[in-house]
């Protein structure tokens, strides 16, 4: 069989790097869209230099997307590029929409003009469920986004569906629930916690300040979730799928497990803005709530029902929540010891 070409936008991000590894393993020729920054930094894709062909471009720049299509002539596109941090979406709501919403239409138009048979994967999100209308959430649960990020992604989701129905394009959305990894950005709560645990254990930090400890998320590992993206584009028919672990845990639970993985047991005291945790049997404070990290609107509870992905795609996650926490803590302790944090 002829080698397939794939174009990944967002290749320097967490998911982009795992997906590139998966596609290379499967024998794809992989192209990755990267944007120019003041420092030439490939972030999570540094190790892919020489294996992937990088194309400079930007989701807000139609010309660069057309150029990327012309160069890569992809059989499959994975649109992972986004301003993906929910908190920042209140600070930069317009550029978030430019990249995450209008950028998807720009990409779809470039596909239509250059190679309409290209199969397109869109990175939709459980943030579209926001103020949840049902528990657990599946493909038929009504959306109610709670941030400029969630709203921008909802546009991307619907424009994909519309191009599929209007032009018969093979365009799919994966409604992915939170997935983390050793490569997660440091501002997301899981990685913020695991880096802090490593530093506290090494005596380099006193405690970690967090926002809403009651928020519940359905957390999986990125390496499992990129497999679902690929599976969606191998089907006979384009469709949308929820990808989730089916378990939900609070931020409080994640921080407890993370400290435990480093041999430290927490004891919680107080509640709301006054909540904090000490090292068991001591008065040493290791976790503090700081309202600075509360959001203008919160998504309280996410738990996904991935039965459709399991049935149609045969997808199953391999890495459990407990393993995820352990892997992230161990990786950050190692990175810290090597001077890489
Ligand atoms: P990351 O934030 O790690 O990666 C985002 C990527 O998008 C980076 O490569 C970034 O490049 C790139 N990017 C940002 N803006 C632009 C732009 N204007 N033009 C081109 N590229 C740009 O996200 P994840 O890997 O975690 O997530 C991948 C996708 O999946 C995102 O769309 C995210 O919204 C979505 N998603 C993520 C979930 C998760 O839990 N991780 C869950 C559901 C959906 P640079 O390195 O230059 O910043
Ligand atoms: P989320 O991820 O907003 O779910 O979006 P994040 O890890 O930022 O927040 C998860 C929950 O933790 C609470 N929280 C904190 N969050 C951060 N970042 N920092 C803190 O100190 C803190 N304390 C508590 C938050 O309030 C929230 O409830 C991620 C992104 O990857 C999106 O791109 C993706 O679409 C969704 O997951 C699914």
From TrEMBL:
Keywords on record: Lyase, NADP
Cofactor(s) needed: NADP(+)
Known EC number: 4.2.1.47
Signal peptide as annotated in the record: none
Pfam families noted in UniProt: GDP_Man_Dehyd
All copies of domain NAD(P)-binding, residue ranges: 7-328
Broadest EC class assigned to this enzyme: lyase
Family to which this protein belongs: Belongs to the NAD(P)-dependent epimerase/dehydratase family. GDP-mannose 4,6-dehydratase subfamily.
PANTHER family (alphabetical): GDP-MANNOSE 4,6 DEHYDRATASE, GDP-MANNOSE 4,6-DEHYDRATASE
Role: Catalyzes the conversion of GDP-D-mannose to GDP-4-dehydro-6-deoxy-D-mannose.
NCBIfam families: gmd
UniProt-recorded name of the protein: GDP-mannose 4,6-dehydratase
Gene behind this protein: gmd
